[in-house]
Amino acid sequence: MTVETVYPTDFQLHLFHEGNLFESFKLFGSHVHTVDKVVYTTFCVWAPNATNVQLVGDFNNWDGTHYSLERINNEGVWIIKVNKDLSGAVYKYKIITPDGRELLKADPYAFFSEVRPNTASIVYSLDGYKWNDSKWIQKKNKKNLLNEPIAIFEVHLGSWKIHENGDLYSYKELAAELIPYCVEQGFTHIELLPIVEHPLDISWGYQGTGYYSATSRFGEPKDLMYFIDMCHQNNLGVIMDWVPGHFCKDAHGLYQFDGTSQFDYANPKDRENIVWGTANFDLGKMEVHSFLISNALFWIDYFHIDGFRVDAVSNIIYWPNSGENSVNNYGIEFLQKLNQTISQYDASILMFAEDSTDWPQVTAPVHYGGIGFDYKWNMGWMNDILKYMETHSDNRKYVHDKVSFSLLYAFSENFVLPFSHDEVVHGKKSILDKMPGDYWQKFAQFRLLIGYMFAHPGKKLLFMGTEFAQFAEWKDKEQLDWLLFDYEMHQKANDYVKEWLKIYKRSKPLYQLDHRHDGFEWIDVNNKDQSIFSFVRRTEKDGEYLIIICNFTYHTYENYRIGVPKKDEYREILNSDMDCFGGANYINKKTMKAEDIPFHGLSHSVQLTIPAFSIILLRPVQHRKGRKGNGKETVRRNAISRGEGE
Known about the structure:
Structural class: alpha/beta
Strand order of the largest sheet: 10-11-14-18-19-20-21-22
Largest sheet: 8 strands, parallel, barrel
Strand content: 15-25%
Number of helices: 14
Low-confidence stretches: 641-646
Radius of gyration: 27 Å
CATH superfamily of the largest domain: Glycosidases
Number of strands: 30
Mean pLDDT: 94
CATH topology of the largest domain: TIM Barrel
Helix content: 10-25%
C-alpha cells in the first residue's frame, strides 16, 4: 500500500492551537475517506516534542519503518495518508522522544479500542447509525428543566447486573433490561459512571485513556448509540459522568505522550494528582482546550448525550494538591469556556458540577461572573443530613442544625441532592445500613430520609441499589443484591421509592420553585427536643402548596398540632408509616379541617398523628375543581394503604 500526506487547512490548525477547534475529532485520529471511489485512511496526531512519529499496527506487522508521519507545522501536528481502507485495523503510534526513547501510544482521538487488557486503538467509523429519537430531541428542546422534575438514577454499567459466568452485560442487553427497569421505577434520567475507555475496572471509568472511545467492555460504539437511542424512545435522558480534570497514567495513554508534559502540567507539583494517582490536565494549554471541549461536543453529536456531570470540579477550580488555598485561573477560564460553548452549541444540554467547595456562582451565567453550570451537587446537604441520620435519635437534638442549615443556602445555586456511589462504598455502608437502630428502625429511617430528600428543594439523584434499600454497600466487582426483592421489607422499600417518584413528578410544589426562596417556608424549624420539622413547598400559583412534616425520633405523637397557611381542609396523601411500605400504619385516614387556633406563627392549625421515624405529606383539598378528582385521590390512597399501588 502507498503512503502519502493529506494537509489540513491553515485555519483548522490555527483554531486548534488557539483552543477553539471544537470539532478537532474530525481532523485528528483515524478516518476512512472515499473520494471518487478511491478509499484511503488518514491518521493525525499532536505530539509537539516528538522527533519522529510512526504508525504501527496489524496491517504492517507493527513495523513503522515505512509509515512515518509528516510533521506539518512547528506546533507539532503530524499526519499520514494510507491508500487503503483500514477499517477494523488495530494500531498505535510509535513516538520517538527528544531523549531517544520509543513509546507506543494509543490514539488520543480513537473512536474505538481493544478490550482490556489490550490497549491498542481500532480504526472505526461512527457513521451509519439510524437514530429514532427525534421526538425526544424536539421535546427536550422545548423544556425549561429548571422548572421541571429531575430524578436521576446513577448507574455503574459494570455492576448493575452481571452474568452468572462473570461476563458483563452488553450495551444491548442493558438496553433490554436496565431501561425498562428505570421506566418502571419512575426516574427521568440515567447517569452513567464514565464510559470512556479505561484500562482498570476498579477505577469505575474515572481514570481514562481514550476520551473519544466508548469503552469496549460492553460492545461497540454503535451499540452504545442504540442504548441511548432506546433511552430516549422511553423518555429517559442520559447524563454522562465526565472527567476533564485528570487522566490515567498508564504507559499507552495521554501521560507524557511525546516524552514530555504534553497534556499534563510540566511542574510535577501541579501534574501529579496525589489522591488518585493520576495526572492533571494542563488547562493552560490551548490545545488541551480544543481536545476537551471537542470531546464534550463529540458525545453530544455522535451519541446524543443529554448532559454531563463534570467530576471533581474542586480539582479544577483550585490548583491540585493545594486544597482550597490557591485558585487556578486556568481551570476557571476553562470551565467558563466549556459551559459557554456547550450552551451556545445546544442550550438543552445539562451541565452538572460535582463540586465540594463553597466557590460562589457556580451555576450563575458566565456573563454575570459565574462559572456557567446549570446545576451543582449539594455536597453540604448530603454530608449534613447523613451525619444527622447516623446520629442516634436521642442525640439528634444536639445536631439539630444539620437539618436546618442547608436552607440558609439552598437557593444560592441550582442544586441537585445526591446520594451517589461515593456515599455507599469503601466502608461507608449503604444508605440503609447507615441508619441506627434495629431492623425495623433502619427501614423506617431509610423511608424518612428518602422522603426528606424528595421534599427538600433541589433535583434528585440516587445511586443504583438505593431504590430497594440494598443492605450491603456497593461492591463494584459484583452485581447488585437482586435477591433482596424476595424479602418483603426490601420490596416495600422499593414500592415506597417508586411512590415518591410518582408524587414528585406530578406535584409542582415539589419542583417548580426548586431554586427560589418563595417556593419554601418553614412552619417549625425550632423543635429540637422532639426533632420534628415542618415546612411548606409552594408553586407560583396561590393556594397550590404541600405541607411536609418529619419526625426524626422513635416517639409517636398523637394530637400533634402544627400551624397551616390557610383555613383549608387537608388530606394526607403520603405517610411513610403505611403498612404497605413496611410501617406500623399509624396514619391519618380522615380529612383534617383547619381550626381558628393560631400556631407556629400562622393563623390556623390542624391536629394529627405523627408516627415514629416518619414523613407525612399533606395536600389542601381542592373543592372548586370538583370532588371527582378528590375522590380519585382518596381511592388511590386507600389502594396504596392496601398495598395495591395504582
